Amino acid sequence: MTRGSYQPALHPQKAIVLQVGRRGTFFFPAGLYGYTGSALNGVEGCLARHRRQNKKIHWYINDLLRHAQIPSVRVFPTPRKAECTLNREALKQPGAQVIAKGFGSSDRRCAAHLVFLGQLRT
Question: pTM of the predicted model, to two decimals?
Answer without folding.
Answer: 0.85
